[in-house]
Design a protein that fits this description.
5-stranded antiparallel sheet; Heat Shock Protein 90; 2 domains; 12 strands; elongated; 39% helix; alpha+beta; single chain
């Protein structure tokens, strides 16, 4: 990708900017001598990180990338650095052109002329947070995603243990099959964890077929039925068929139903509603939990996002909902959430019928 280097720079400066273009970090240069501190240079990594083209960035203030910053302390540090001409390093939330967000670390430093006056600022953005933060996010997300199939496998093994000393006892059908499914699920999730970039970039391959959506929903969460505490109650068009990848849609539904159980542990019934129009099927998974505040709802599908509410029940939100979103979008459908604090939450998605 060619570097965005304005023509007014001399040859020496252009050579320096060519070198910056080869950096592994995102880099911008801000002209502090012009009103509103416009960006006058950005390297290819920065455009890749943000999803904007260079011509969409140059001339604009860097605030347009920051969206609704929740890290007010970081925002204050950046403004203070620009006003007082000093260095700062902060972790903050930025927004890509497509509306998705990413957290990163940015280092801002002033550039001074021979008289000591600040003429420019350089901003260097790391692609990710600190190694420790990145590691913690990965561990938390992996634990959340792997818990469902491991719980299912554990339930099957507990039932099989009853037959260990009584070989003549009749074994319920399907236990070994369910154990194999759980192992396959773990394998699939490990693959997903190692290939999350494919979801984001739309490189995931789908194996589509026509299948009975209600049957898939009925079969998808045996670990919940094994517990004997919850019922999955389906309503609406239970004869509905869709054209999609059943393995991937099973993954989406398992995640939404498991979340409904986790967020509303006292509710016995998890409601799943099926509706459709001429082109799309719509699936609702409804719980009776505490609900999600409106300012959090737009972020719950972001990778590694943790809802900022007092209840620890929402701590597991992260990779599961991110992957679910990417799977549905890749099918040409939509996914969303409707919630009112104290009245529960309804996650929904659509799929093409044909």
């Amino acid at each position: 990708m060619k570097n965005a280097i304005p023509n007014q720079f001399n040859d020496h400066t252009r050579q320096l900017l060519e070198a910056l273009g080869n950096s592994i970090n995102g880099i911008i240069i801000i002209d502090h001598q012009l009103p509103d501190d416009p960006i006058i240079y950005c390297n290819p990594v920065f455009t890749e990180m943000t999803g904007y083209k260079a011509e969409e960035i140059l001339g604009r203030n860097c605030r347009f990338l920051q969206g609704e910053l929740r890290e007010q302390e970081g925002r204050f540090k950046i403004l203070e650095a620009l006003q007082q001409g000093k260095e700062c390093t902060v972790e903050l939330l930025n927004f890509r052109k497509d509306g998705s967000s990413f957290q990163n670390e940015i280092f801002i430093s002033p550039i001074r002329n021979n008289e000591g006056q600040v003429t420019h600022f350089i901003g260097i953005q790391n692609k990710s947070l600190s190694f420790q933060k990145q590691k913690d996010d990965f561990i938390n997300s992996a634990s959340h995603e792997l818990k469902t199939p491991v719980t299912s496998l554990k339930a099957v093994l507990q039932l099989l243990r009853q037959f260990e000393n009584d070989p003549d006892k009749q074994m319920p059908p399907g236990l070994i099959s369910q154990a194999n499914k759980s192992v396959e699920k773990v394998e699939s999730l490990i693959e997903d964890l190692l290939n999350t970039a494919k979801y984001r970039d739309g490189q995931l391959q789908l194996d589509k077929s026509k299948f009975d959506l209600a049957k898939l929903i009925h079969d998808c969460c045996p670990h919940i039925r094994f517990e004997g505490k919850y019922n999955i109650v389906m309503q609406g068009d239970v004869q509905l068929e869709v054209y999609a990848d059943p393995k991937r849609i099973n993954q989406v539904i398992e995640n939404l139903i498991s979340n409904a159980r986790k967020f509303a542990p006292a509710a016995q019934n998890i409601k799943v509603s099926l509706t459709h129009n001429a082109e799309f099927a719509r699936v609702f998974v409804m719980d009776q939990g505490p609900g999600i505040p409106k300012d959090e709802q737009q972020h719950v599908f972001e990778r590694y996002y943790k809802a900022n509410v007092s209840s620890q029940q929402f701590g597991g939100m992260g990779l599961g909902l991110f992957i679910s979103r990417e799977i549905i979008l890749l099918h040409g459908g939509e996914i969303g959430v409707e919630s009112e604090p104290g009245l529960g939450t309804s996650f929904w998605f659509t799929l093409p019928i044909n």
